[in-house]
Each structure stands twice: as C-alpha cells, then as structure tokens.
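Reply to dn_fold:

You asked what the input looked like. This is it:
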Amino acid sequence: MAKGDFEQRHLETLDRDLKRFSTLEQATAYASRPMMGLGVSLVFILVAGLVAFYLFGQTGNTLVVVIAAGFGAYMALNIGANDVANNMGPAVGANALTMGGAIAIAAVFESAGALLAGGDVVSTIAKGIIAPQSMQTASIFIWAMLAALLSAALWVNLATWVGAPVSTTHSVVGGVMGAGIAAAGFAAVNWPTMYKIAASWVISPVLGGLIAALFLWFIKTKIVYRDDKIAAARVWVPVLVGIMGGAFSVYLALKGLKKIMKIDFSSALMIGFGVGVIIWVVMIPVVRKQAEGLENRNKSLKKLFGIPLIVSAALLSFAHGANDVANAVGPLAAIVQASASGGFADAVSIPLWVMAIGALGISFGLFLFGPKLIRMVGGQITKLNPMRAYCVALAAAITVIVASWLGLPVSSTHIAVGGVFGVGFFREWDSQRRMKRARLTVPQAVERPREERRRRKLVRRSHFLTIIAAWVITVPAAATISALIFWVIAIYTGGAS
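and this is what came back:
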C-alpha cells in the first residue's frame, strides 16, 4: 500500500473516531442537562432554607419556616418553568427573540417586577380563599398554608413535565382551598371567590382569543391583503404600536405598579391614551425609515413588528413578576407572619427576603426548565410570526384591562394561550374562506380530500385538548393533593386538626 493511501485512510479513520467522540460528547451533555438543572434547583432550595434560618431567627417555629422557605423556592422555580412561557413563547416562536435573549430579558424584568412592584396580591392568596377565623389555632393555619404551597408546586411541576401551560394562580388557589376544606370543612372556603375563579376558566381564554383574532383580522385586512403592503404598513403600523404602548401603559398602571402608587381605572385610561398618542407620533418617522427599500411582500412586514414584540414581552414579564410572585410567596409570607407573631387574621406583611426567594426562584426556573414550555406556546400549538405574536401580546394586555373594568378575575396563562389559539383558529377560518372563494372564482379547482384537510389544520388538536384538560382539572387536582398533604401532616403532628 502506498504511503499516501495509508495516510489518507488513517486520517479518514481518525475523522470518524473524532466524529463519534463529538457525538458522544453532545449526547452526554444533553443527557446531563436535566441532572444539572435538578442539582442547581436543589442547591437553590437549600440556600432558601438557610436564608430563612439565618434571617428568621431561632425560635420554636424556625424549622417550619425553613421548610416553608424551601417549598416557596420550589414553587417559584416551577412558576419560572411554566408560567413565564406565556410571555416569551410568542416572541421566540416568531423569531423576534432567540431563546437565550428571551430568558435574559424575562429574568431581568420578572425579578424587577417582583421586587419593585410585587406583593400587592399576597394577602388575597393567603387570606382571600379561606377565612382565617375558621382555623382553630395558628398551627393549623400554618399547616394548611404549607400543604397549599407544596401541592401547588407539585401540580405545576407535573404540568410542566407533561408540557401543559397551566395557571399557577389557579394552582395555588386550589391548594389553599383543599387545605382549608381539610382543616375546617367546606364552610371555611370563600365560595363566591371560587365561583369567579371557575368562571375565569372560560372568560380568560375566550376573551384573549377573540381580541387576538380581531387584531389579526385587522392587520390582514388593512395591510397584508393590500396591493401595496409597504404603503399600508407605513400608515397602520405606527397606529398599532401606539395602541400597544397605550394598552401596556394602562396594564402596568393597573396591575404592575400598585405597590409604588395607587391609580384608579379612569386615570390609568387617560395615562394610556396619552402614552399611546405619543408613541404613535414618534413611530411614524421610525416606521417610514424602517420601510425604506423593503420589498412588497409579507416577509418584509415582519421586520416592522420585531421591536414592538420584544418590548411587549419585557413589559409582560415585569407585570407578571409583580403579580404572580404572590403565588410562590403568598402562603410563605402568611406562614412567616403566623410563626413570628402567633396571629393569623391580620393583613400579611412581606419581608424582603421572602420576596427575593420568589423573584430569584422564578428566574432560575425559567433559565433551567423554561425552554420546553416556551417552545410549546411559541411554536407547537400553531405557527407564529411577528404579526401573529404581536396580536397575542396585545390581546393579553387588553384582556386584563377589560377584565379589570368588569371586575372579572382572569388568568394571564389562560389569556396568552387563548390568544395563541385565537390566532390559530382565525387562520384556519380565513384559509378556508379564501379557498372557498378561490373555488368559486376558478370552477376547475379541485377540493382537497377530507383527510388532507384534517392534516392541514393550523392548530394542533392534540395540544389543544391536553391544555384544556389541564386547565379544567388544575383547581380540583391541586385541592386534592393539598388535602392529602394536610392530613399527612395532621397525622404526623399528632392530630393538628
């Protein structure tokens, strides 16, 4: 064999071996990623317990507070893994943000919202579902809150593993309700509040879906289906961005800044109107500049919606951190207060270290486990582009505003995912409508077989049914788990109830 041939074969063999080694390295890294996430999560939970031990002080209830801090950290991790996908999923699915960029933005704005404006709804979570007066002792109240916190975290963890975005608010509400029933009977539950929450199962996704579909119809009618798309975009994109800016101003004024300042609904609307007009005026030359040189096709329009979509994702994350941090630290704050004072009927105050556990836990959970649900919301329910994702984000803000005006409780998860469904189902309807019109215009066009039409559905029915089922059973499932945990605690502590 010639020396050159031998060297060539040797190099080929070496390349194959290196390729196998590289593949093995990638497989090992992929396999170890879940273990790394689990390890970091356990370390965070332990650190939260140590912080609670150091800052709460050594009393008779220190062990309970340490355990509660660990459960609160666990719940915060699950909120980050599941709930934050609703804010970032559309932007990632539309390719306006990379996964890394989405995680970085969400981590910063979720934490800022939790620390700067969070905590206003903690008392509702801790005291609005069950009547504290129905609890016989402070110990029973503490066990109930502990069971609620753990059950909600377990349920959200299971939902994340299955791939279903669920409402963490409904999870913790179900947990508090189940523990309250186990501790003091059905009379302890504030049933009017529970009826409103049950109504929000329908109201939130339907309203979010309708608003998202309405704006997508508007964009298609006024921009996409026009002969000169770019000229139409120069007119309407500044208006749409102004509407988004105004809507988010009202959203943040009502939901995200309660801790900093109190703003009534009419004042929030005036602020939103003013901000919206200013943004509309500012965006006119900006959009005109962006539109220069763009080809007259749909792909060019995506560029004009990219920045508004990123900003909306950041603002949604801020408002989400301000509100949904209560799902992690509401029961924890109630436990800390009851353990320190022995009273459990007063308004709940929130120590800074408790809020920090919630804020950091949400960020860690998003970084370690969030990509799975972000991909689900952003691309696996229906295909999103910047225009469709814009409609979802705007629907989320407007739905919360409408719900606040009507006094209806809504879920941010249900609104966002409902908006994705609304966009997808509108696209199906619009596609079928255009096909029928084409068949009327071109008589020789052949209608596709039923099976092919079923495969071409723009919303994946399997994901739709899974998510709806998870929504429906969230409150009863979390309540059942919580009741079981409370009874276990009661048995272990010698009959706390």
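Residues 3-56 form the longest helix (54 residues).
Hope that clears it up.
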